[in-house]
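WARN no homologs supplied; continuing
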Amino acid sequence: MSTLYTSRYAIGPNEAKQFDTETLRQHFLIDDLFQENRISMVYTHYDRMIVGGALPTADHLTLETIDPLKSSYFLERRELGIINIGGLGEVDVDGHTYTLDNKEALYVGAGVQSVVFKDHPDGEQACFYFNSAPAHKSFPTKKVGRSEATVLEMGSLETSNERSIYQLIINGVVETCQLQMGVTCLKPGSVWNTMPAHQHDRRMEAYLYFDVPQSNAVSHFMGKPEQTRHIWMHNRQAVISPPWSIHSGAGTSNYSFIWGMAGENLDYGDMDKYDPTELK
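OK structure emitted
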């Protein structure tokens, strides 16, 4: 079987603050997305976001529907965002082939019946990460390279958070129903992926940490601002961030991460910020 999935039900803040380390990781950490010749995904009950990964090697991998969707094909009522975090790869969308290099994105609109992930013979191993959310309308499929992205230069070396934010699948670059995705790359010497920490009660989010050097790790902070928790994460691991939770992280080295959001609106700046002195 080339498609594997699990479901995660929504957890509230009062329940989460009682969790020990293992229970917290069980509900929010996704550590097995990338398995050779498999499509793996987690169907979350936070805005019905799906977090997935595809690692084609010898075989082509077809995105198949899963039982929770109760649909005849995966994108019957959904939209999809794909970002390649590996070597050169290809995605076939209803017979049209899109080539994706490292940190390039592809948006696929609702109604597309066939999505196939392929490795490329001329590159290193492709590795596809994807998010999917319900869609009320069909928008055109569009590839977005890093040169087409909106780029924000944020932070500073003095505050250890100098970073480039590549807004790939976002309002103003690609038309979507609710899905937004992008890549943030920390500069050498910087480790904080965002500070001040923030939450947006109108949207959930998922993070994928990657380009984490061997023998290094990232501590992901979550929870209510007055009840924070942390999850230690490693390369190519993802974490679910509920709408009620802050999301921030610091690594033992610089790294990159993909952020994906779904929910109430498409306003990237809609967030509630908390100064470091407010966190507990």
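The longest strand covers residues 203-210.
OK
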